[in-house]
């Protein structure tokens, strides 16, 4: 009865709370469309490279593959959220679909966090304890860990989100997965999400990064290129973690501590949803990890970038050279100097012969 009374009181607070949802009709649709257009092909490509790593028995590919699957599930839910915000936060589907989309949203956050931790711990064991912990760095172990993460997060969602996730606001719009102010039962859940879903994984990431950085700097046997690759992988993991998930969880904690009125909820609404949109960029940022996960993948993207730069440089160089050599004043000046100084003519002729002989040599790598 107490829970039922609390739910009634919370619903009454939501009905009496008027909040400006303009940010949902302006910024949110742009971000959702951008993440969908960029994230879908990027994650499909990432899934392919993860599969290639799994094929060669690389346990890191298992974690990257699961990370991509979590991102793709959320990307497929974006059209529903896009329609929701464009209709002024009015959910037109049934409550079950609202609960599924909400769970996918939160699962993307915490499953991504879990697998980012797995990637960092895997690199820590590979660098700091390469022989002692070899049995934990196998494809079989990675599969077991992945199953455990998915099972834990799905069970947690089923236990935590047992309340009704569809309510009506003051404008009689059906609101999905949003309660303003926070409902009574949400406080304990948010504290759990902050500590177990953000703070503890963040400590693991810092511990892994510190251990890897210390060993890599002291190691003389590791190649410099390999050191840079390892540092890039772990650094990008921490940057993605902090930028995409840090601000959201800080605002989540602030709301859980101080939000007990509609006025406070309205004042923090825009800032909170900007941080929530940052978690969406995780779907675009995760494929960056694939650039640093293996030498071959990194070289592929590096060569692609070098090719584009070389093409631009060649175009600029050809334009400058053709303009300089085709100028009549330049040719006339060279001829005048050659007539005054016969040695200059001899040097120019020798240089031309040398350039011709070099251009006829085979290029590097061509047999």
From TrEMBL:
SUPFAM superfamilies membership: Family A G protein-coupled receptor-like (SSF81321)
Biological processes, Gene Ontology terms: adenylate cyclase-activating G protein-coupled receptor signaling pathway; cellular response to acidic pH; insulin secretion; monocyte differentiation; negative regulation of monocyte differentiation; osteoclast development; phospholipase C-activating G protein-coupled receptor signaling pathway; positive regulation of insulin secretion involved in cellular response to glucose stimulus
Entry's Gene Ontology cellular component terms: plasma membrane
Residues annotated as transmembrane: 30-51, 63-82, 102-121, 141-162, 191-212, 233-258, 264-285
Main location: membrane
Subcellular location, record wording: Cell membrane
Protein topology in the membrane: Multi-pass membrane protein
GO molecular function, one term: G protein-coupled receptor activity
Gene3D superfamilies, alphabetized: Rhodopsin 7-helix transmembrane proteins
Domain annotation G-protein coupled receptors family 1 profile: ranges: 42-290
Family assignment from sequence similarity: Belongs to the G-protein coupled receptor 1 family.
Protein name: G protein-coupled receptor 68
Organism: Podarcis muralis (Wall lizard)
Lineage, highest ranks first: Eukaryota, Metazoa, Chordata, Craniata, Vertebrata
């Amino acid at each position: 009865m107490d829970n039922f009374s609390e739910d009634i009181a919370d619903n009454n607070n939501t009905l009496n709370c008027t909040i400006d949802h303009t940010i949902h009709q302006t910024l949110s649709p742009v971000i959702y469309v951008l993440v969908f257009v960029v994230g879908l092909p990027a994650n499909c490509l990432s899934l392919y490279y993860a599969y290639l790593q799994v094929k060669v028995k690389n346990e890191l590919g298992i974690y990257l593959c699961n990370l991509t699957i979590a991102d793709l599930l959320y990307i497929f839910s974006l059209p529903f959220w896009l329609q929701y915000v464009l209709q002024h936060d009015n959910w037109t589907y049934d409550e079950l679909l609202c609960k599924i989309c909400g769970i996918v949203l939160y699962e993307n956050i915490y499953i991504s966090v879990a697998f980012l931790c797995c990637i960092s711990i895997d690199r820590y064991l590979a660098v700091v304890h390469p022989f002692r912990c070899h049995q934990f760095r196998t494809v079989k172990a990675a599969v077991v860990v992945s199953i455990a993460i998915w099972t834990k997060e799905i069970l947690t969602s089923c236990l935590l989100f047992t309340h009704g996730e569809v309510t009506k606001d003051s404008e009689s719009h059906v609101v999905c997965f949003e309660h303003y102010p926070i409902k009574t039962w949400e406080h304990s859940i948010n504290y759990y999400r902050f500590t177990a879903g953000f703070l503890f994984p963040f400590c693991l990431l810092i511990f892994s990064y510190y251990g890897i950085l210390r060993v890599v700097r002291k190691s003389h046997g590791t190649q410099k290129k390999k050191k840079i690759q390892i540092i890039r992988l772990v650094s990008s993991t921490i940057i993605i973690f902090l930028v995409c998930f840090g601000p959201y969880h800080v605002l989540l904690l602030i709301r859980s501590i101080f939000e007990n009125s509609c006025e406070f909820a309205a004042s923090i609404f825009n800032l909170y949803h900007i941080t929530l949109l940052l978690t969406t960029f995780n779907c675009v940022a995760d494929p960056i990890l694939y650039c640093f996960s293996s030498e071959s993948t990194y070289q592929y993207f590096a060569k692609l970038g070098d090719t584009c730069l070389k093409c631009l440089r060649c175009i600029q160089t050809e334009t400058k050279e053709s303009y300089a050599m085709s100028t009549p004043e330049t040719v006339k000046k060279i001829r005048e100097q050659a007539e005054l100084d016969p040695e200059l003519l001899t040097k120019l002729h020798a240089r031309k012969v040398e350039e011709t002989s070099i251009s006829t040599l085979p290029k590097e790598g061509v047999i």
